Amino acid sequence: MTPEKLLEILGKSAAAKGYYLHANREHCLATAESLLANKERYGYMCCPCRLACEDSRTDRDIICPCEYRDADIAEYGACYCSFYVSEEHKDDSLFFPEVEERRDPDRGA
Amino acid sequence: MSNIFYIVAALAIIAVVSAFFLKSKRKESSNHGAVETWIPKETAKKKNEPQGDPALYELGINHSSSKPIMYALTTCQHCRNTRRYLDEAGAEYTCVYIDEFSGDQRAELMDVVRTYNPRGTFPTILFPNGKVIVGYRRQLLEEALNDTGKTA
Q: Does residue B21 share a domain with residue B72?
């Protein structure tokens, strides 16, 4: 799968939840490439901004879209990677908020 | 009547073969010590996988350098943005990509990261003067570089 195709698929699934992919196309393409790299390495599309445990059961909360996306978008307007954004920020290509990690540190790698 | 005889005979043969097989397995197990450690095939494979650069591993573990050390992920956009900023600022630094290591080495490097950043997030940048910056923070990076006189 190409990063462009992945963006198309993820963009549609995000829209179904009322979210958008970030307006910065270069950022989105790089994130999609990283997701595909993680799929190749681990067998699942782990969040590229977090270190995978290499076990899909342990990492299920950070498989993109992660379990924290809704809360992050509600509070910051973007997910942890600034890959998904709210409607309010859908046209702002410079919108990169500092999103605090919600994941329990004991759960990580 | 003869059918029943054949069925009983077949069951008896299966029972004898099974008992012999189990006995030989037990003997094999006892040859390797009292406690057997089961290692999943995938884990065993990972232990044999090549690790990242040994010099970077040493630096990442000892974390003593005259240059900033950045703990990062190859896939992380915040890490890429931070690298781009540092490069554009002409900063000298060393980047240790944690995801290029696996097994014990990865765990040991993560222990170091958590020493300075308990949440274990990326990037985590250690400056020689002891300052720690977590995430892509342009303002903080600029201040830290000015403090250490590493800007171009």
A: no
DSSP state of B66: S
Q: Look at chain B and report how many structural domains it folds into.
A: 2
Q: What is the pLDDT of residues B49-88, one digit of tens each?
A: 557 899 899 889 988 888 999 999 999 999 999 999 999 9
Q: Are residues B114 and B58 located together in one domain of the fold?
A: yes
pLDDT digits (tens, 9 = 90+) for B97-119: 999 998 899 999 999 999 999 99
Distance, CA of A49 to CA of B78 (rounded, Å): 7
Structure tokens at A97: 């908020």
C-alpha atoms less than 13 angstroms from C-alpha of B130 in its C-beta half-sphere: 0
* Phi, psi for residue B11 in degrees, rounded to 5: -65, -40
Residue B126 lies in a domain: yes
How close is the nearest chain A Cα to the Cα of B122, in Å? 7
Contact yes or no for B77 and A109 at CB 8 A: no
Cα distance between residue B85 and residue B77, in whole Å: 12
ipTM tops the 0.85 cut: yes
Q: Are residues B59 and B90 in the same domain?
A: yes
Asked if A36 is an interface residue toward chain B (Cβ–Cβ < 8 A), one would say no
Domain that holds residue B141: 54-147
